[in-house]
Amino acid sequence: MIVTIIDYGSGNLLSVSRALEHCGASCQISGDPAVISAADALVLPGVGAFRDGMEGLAGRGLIDPILTHANAERPLLGICLGMQMLASSSEEFGSHRGLSLIPGKVRAIPKYSQAGNSRRTPFIGWARLDQTSNVTWTGSPLRSIKEGESVYLVHSYSFAPEDPNHLLATYTFYGDHITAAVRRDNIIGLQFHPEKSGQVGLRVLHEFIKLAQ
């Protein structure tokens, strides 16, 4: 099995590739629509703005191949911006359509918490993962992670899935729960950067590889 990392002109391809290879995967980086649609497993990484990411995918003719892959029930992992593009839409710098693979919207993290505390965004740093009350990590890339282990995040917008059963994990930011991971069947999204999250992140990638085989 080869893990294909999607090249659409946005971010950290080599670091993601090195992390996956460290976990035992054979990787290729490609922006070829034919390669993407036929891939065994896909990773959609990314940093930057939602609009730019979607324009990058569209400009390279990659949206339909990604949808074809996902609808064939083959594994797809979105990381950071790649996770947010799995959503139906985003409000970042206007209203923009996403891949609609996991129904939901991407919205700015509010400047004030529900308790009224002021907070600075983007959130940059380490945060502890919390399991949601109605979703188990069994059978997901988080299955070897213990609740409370920490991962590294950089973001100012957050994915709110429509179905609470698609919310896999959260972290706490001034008392509010912020989405850290989502999942719908074969489609997984991580707001955190596993390639920057030390041994915890490597365990997550290792489990993704095992689940994809």
Detailed description of the structure:
By secondary structure, this protein is of the alpha/beta class. It has one domain: 3-Layer(aba) Sandwich (Rossmann fold). It is built from six helices and 14 strands. The protein has an eight-stranded mixed β-sheet with strand order 2-1-3-4-14-13-12-9, sandwiched between helices. The radius of gyration is 16 Å and the shape is globular. The model has no long low-confidence stretch (mean pLDDT 95).
Summarize this structure as a short list of keywords or feature phrases.
213 residues; alpha/beta; Rossmann fold; 8-stranded mixed sheet; 4-stranded mixed sheet; 14 strands; globular
Average pLDDT number: 95
- Could you give the order of strands across the largest sheet? 2-1-3-4-14-13-12-9
User: Segments where pLDDT lies below 50 for 5+ residues?
Assistant: none
Strand content: 25-35%
The CATH class, by name, is: Alpha Beta
For this structure, the CATH topology is Rossmann fold
Q: What characteristic shape results from the CA principal axes?
A: globular
Cα-atom radius of gyration = 16 Å
Helix proportion of residues, in percent?
A: 10-25%
How far do the termini sit from each other?
7 Å
Number of helical segments?
6
CATH superfamily: Class I glutamine amidotransferase (GATase) domain
Query: In the residues, how many domains can be counted?
Result: 1
CATH architecture field: 3-Layer(aba) Sandwich
Per DSSP E runs of 2 or more residues, the count of β-strands stands at: 14
Order of helices and strands, N to C? EHEHEHHEHEEEEEEEEEEH
Class derived from helix and strand content: alpha/beta
Main sheet attributes: strand count, strand direction, barrel closure: 8 strands, mixed
